[in-house]
Amino acid sequence: MAKNILLTGGTGFIGKHLTDLLIESGFSVSVLSRSDKKNTPAISYYKWDLTRNYIDEEAILSADYIIHLAGEGIVEKRWTKKRKKDILESRIKPIDLIFSVLKKNNKTLEGFVSASAIGIYGAITNEHICDENTPPANDFLGITCLEWESAVDKINSLGIRTVKVRTGIVLGKDEGFLKKIVPSFKAGFGAILGTGKQYVPWIHIEDLCQIYLKAIADEQMHGPYNSCVTDNTTNASLSKALAHLFGYKIWLPKAPAFILKIVLGEMSLAVLEGQRVSSEKIEKMGFEFEFTDLERALASCLN
């Protein structure tokens, strides 16, 4: 009988791609949804409602593995006090609900894999290469990711193997990060943001989904893993690569940092700062990236 994998955030950008891969790999898939959805031959849907602290317990009890992807977008809206609260709670509340069901029913899992982010290292630009032992930063992104991962540790306290996938910018066709910036580059108005020196650790959606699949299959994996290509891409090199793919060189002046700060507020840190990140740990586990060349990765998302 096929192992069942339950996903939170299964209808999002990453979730949709990962669901397809899991089904192709022979798993049965369940998805937690806020709306009523009809089951398909490949996917079972279960209801949950974080505002009422409700979750259909059968979703948890029938799962062999759980992958937690749910969470409000970091750069969707300005970081007001309420927005910061929503970003944090949308990541932690699902874990708390799952934990309570697991504990109440003395239910075990073969693995719990959670998204996390390289934001744990903070919105800082310097030459230090962050690995999984680098301390969390004391800013909004660092604190949010730390609390997110600390919630995952509660699952681990039940004797369940846990994996934390620290992700950077995810490149995918017509979705995620590229959906926001491609239109301006396609129209010939691409620009470098701020100094352009801020690092942009990235990963192709296909590689990211393969990492989640490995985290399920490889019982030796536990704890945090940086899931980004180690190639020292900066905002400037990313912008130039995109412009090149559309057949021109960037001609606009750099977008001034102070303007971005006015428009975006504190959230501007997410685009004006960025650190170098090492993928050595995941590669030592035997993972090989399919997409390591930035321009090739971008081209695959634009065709």
Secondary-structure class: alpha/beta
Distance between the termini: 38 Å
Percent helix: 25-40%
Domain count:
1
CATH topology (level 3) name:
Rossmann fold
Q: How many DSSP helices?
A: 11
Shape: globular
CATH class: Alpha Beta
**Biggest sheet, strands in spatial order?**
4-3-2-1-5-6-8-11
Question: What would your notes on this structure say?
Answer:
With 303 residues, the protein is an alpha/beta fold. It has one domain (4-235, 266-302): 3-Layer(aba) Sandwich (Rossmann fold). It is built from eleven helices and twelve strands. The chain has helices at residues 13-24, 57-61, 81-104, 140-156, 176-186, 205-217, 235-245, 257-264, 269-272, 280-284, 294-302, and strands at residues 4-8, 28-33, 43-49, 54-55, 65-68, 111-117, 129-130, 162-167, 169-172, 202-204, 223-227, 276-277. Strand 3 and strand 4 (54-55) form a beta hairpin. Helix 1 packs across helix 6 (205-217), helix 3 packs parallel to helix 4 (140-156) and helix 7 (235-245) packs across helix 11 (294-302). The two termini are 38 Å apart.
